[in-house]
Amino acid sequence: MRNYLLSMLFILASMLETGCVIPIYATARDERSRQLIYVSEGLRHIPRIWERTWNLDLPDFATPYRTHGGVI
Description:
This protein is an all-alpha fold. Helix content is 57%, strand content 0%. The radius of gyration is 27 Å and the shape is elongated.
């Protein structure tokens, strides 16, 4: 039983090292490049989504000079 588990673990580890069994992208060059451009176009928008999530894209209302905050 122990040898069986160790051999299965070895086979699993060797499969992970060789790569994916099912390829993610097509094998044709033109189709693969189109797919990669499409994926990278989607990843390009991540910083804008991050800014919207944390409200970093809103205008800054802080004054550049110090105010005293009381009634003058």
